[in-house]
Design goal:
heterodimer, A: 3 helical TM bundles of succinate and fumarate reductases, about 70% helix, B: alpha+beta, Ubiquitin-like (UB roll), two-stranded antiparallel ribbon, 10 helices, 3 iron, 4 sulfur cluster binding (chain B), electron transfer activity (chain B), metal-binding (chain B)
Chain lengths: ~290, ~280
């Protein structure tokens, strides 16, 4: 053990009055704990389950996406209030928490201590991954100049909700992207499953060592199931982005779009409909359908 | 008896002890090697006594005796807590035969890393006692008048509290805690001793309180008479540096030499604070 490790020790010693973060530390930490489950964790479960519906069929996934988009102009508000802002809060406070810790699995290689370190590592991976993922599929902010001048040239905002499975599948064709998504999704799943376990201790739900052990088993099973859902969704989506299945997905998405236009349920929206490379390739198939 | 488990042929004639030394508070540490003649049934304290008697390093240079703290020599006072081969424990119950079984290369001794070093292996654990003051880890019994018998104590309650009462404030739990960071202050030239002590206490009061004090707060909150001041302790546990800093690494319970169920106390404190938080918000 080098003598220099002392330099990493952090102190909050200062003569100035305590900062806002320090004064409200208890409340902020409890809100951080809560926000990890509701809404962030709950959203992630719904998100992965909806995505996994692509394994049923591109039509089933498309139907779910239409349902979400039936919120219309309220959608961005819901997105920001219940998803983006809570994730940002959880992530930023999380960074502050990580900076206050001194991981020591080297000298104390216990399972719970390893999970402590992993919780922080997966949290940081999740922060970076979610930023990349939202940029890649969504574009962060839906403002035309931003999308056209910055996001699209960088390969972002690839998901088109009215061409759901095909556009997501196309965006996941490169091995690099699949690797990023695989690591990111698994990190998020571990972080949630382990986070539920620590949350139970923080709020005093499971108290005795036996109860904590039982809870950690339940959390492990939950994590495993959610990982299967998440990885299934990822590869299911990818499979619908190439070859025959891409053409089939496009056909069913076209049919659903045309139908919604005809019934007046939807107004034409090129932004949500997407276009580009796919349209050309399946123009021919559309002709044959007609 | 433990030493006899090792066959005589395997016993070394001597072994090396590496000590991280420090001459005074705030000065840089330096490693010193000592070669000690093997004897059966040594503990780390007797090794330190041999080092003091030799006062010569492995290279044959004369040196000052290594300073260390000890008192009871039976693992109930906590004074000789230090890092033996990188892990926090009491030197008196660290048996050399066992240590050499795990690591035949020798023994490494360091002062605890989370407390200010006074000299060599001696550290200042004032912060541990300040933490007990923060949570009022006592039962106030003041006045001279006879106030009659206190509330009845149940057998179950006694059984929960007894293990918690075994804490010797040695500091192993916080030494192993990844959320507990060292706080070290130095006296300024224009500062009186009293001013310095006050500044130190202010700093300690904002830093993480640690598992030992959380568990003591629960010990006294669960006591029938101590329960009458439960809210004051909960208020202290939710102040800056309180229970919320815990990151659930659970090293505290793993290293506690008295096997105190510290993580149970932490979860119990969490539950009491959840209730207290709602009561405080909606009852005011």
């Amino acid at each position: 053990m080098p003598v220099g490790f002392r330099a990493k020790d952090m102190t909050r010693v200062q003569d100035s009055p305590p900062s806002f973060l320090v004064r409200h530390e208890f409340l902020i930490r409890r809100l951080h704990s809560l926000s990890g489950l509701v809404p962030v964790g709950a959203f992630m479960c719904v998100h992965l389950l909806v995505n996994a519906s692509v394994l049923e069929s591109p039509a089933a996934f498309q139907k779910n996406v239409y349902q979400i988009h039936s919120l219309g102009s309220l959608l961005p508000v819901v997105e920001w209030v219940f998803i983006f802002i809570p994730i940002l809060f959880h992530a930023i406070i999380g960074v502050v928490i990580v900076m206050g810790g001194i991981p020591n699995t080297g000298n104390y290689p216990y399972a719970a201590n390893r999970r402590y370190t992993l919780q922080r590592v997966t949290g940081m991976i999740a922060f970076v991954f979610i930023a990349i993922h939202v940029f890649h599929m969504h574009g962060w902010i839906h403002q035309d100049t931003w999308l056209e001048k910055v996001v699209r040239p960088l390969g972002g905002a690839e998901f088109h909700p009215y061409s759901a499975a095909s556009s997501a599948g196309l965006a996941l064709q490169s091995y690099v992207m699949v690797a990023i998504y695989l690591i990111g999704v698994l990190a998020c799943v571990f972080h949630l499953a382990n986070g539920i376990w620590t949350m139970g201790i923080t709020w005093g739900v499971w108290i005795s060592p036996k109860a904590q052990k039982r809870a950690s088993n339940v959390c492990a099973i939950f994590g495993l199931l959610l990982a299967i859902v998440g990885v299934g969704a990822l590869f299911g989506m990818r499979a619908d982005g190439a070859g025959e299945r891409l053409i089939e997905a496009r056909q069913v998405e076209d049919k659903m779009y045309e139908h919604k236009l005809e019934s007046g349920e939807l107004k034409p929206n090129e932004h949500k409909r997407g276009g580009g490379e796919v349209t050309k390739s399946e123009e021919t198939s559309q002709v044959s359908v007609e | 008896m433990i030493a006899d488990a090792t066959p005589a042929s395997k016993k070394p004639s001597s072994f090396e002890v590496r000590v991280l030394r420090q001459d005074a508070p705030g000065e840089p540490g330096y490693w010193e090697r000592h070669q000690i003649t093997y004897e059966p049934n040594l503990n780390v304290i007797s090794v330190l006594q041999k080092i003091a008697a030799l006062s010569t390093t492995a290279d044959g240079k004369s040196t000052t005796p290594v300073a260390w703290d000890c008192n009871c020599l039976e693992e109930v006072c906590g004074a000789c807590t230090m890092l033996v081969n990188g892990r926090t424990r009491q030197a008196c119950s660290a048996l050399v035969d066992r240590l050499l079984e795990d690591n035949p290369a020798g023994i490494e001794l360091q002062p605890m890393s989370k407390f200010p070093v006074l000299r060599d292996l001696v550290v200042d654990r004032t912060r541990m006692y300040r933490a007990l003051e923060r949570v009022k880890a006592w039962i106030p019994v003041d006045g001279y008048g006879d106030r009659g018998a206190g509330p009845k104590e149940s057998q179950e309650g006694q059984e929960v509290r007894y293990p918690l009462s075994e804490c010797m404030t040695c500091g192993c739990c916080v030494e192993a805690c990844p959320q507990f960071a060292k706080v070290e202050l130095f006296q300024r030239s224009d500062e009186s001793d009293a001013e310095f002590a006050e500044r130190k206490n202010r700093a300690y009061d904002q830093a993480f309180i640690g598992a030992a004090a959380i568990s003591q707060a629960i010990l006294f909150n669960e006591h029938p008479t101590g329960h009458m001041n439960a809210d004051e302790r909960l208020e202290a546990l939710s102040a800056p540096g309180g229970l919320q800093v815990c990151g659930n690494a659970q090293n505290c319970v793993a290293v506690c030499p008295k096997n105190i169920p510290l993580t149970t106390s932490i979860a119990r404190a969490g539950r009491q604070l959840t209730g207290y938080m709602f009561r405080k918000f909606f009852d005011r």
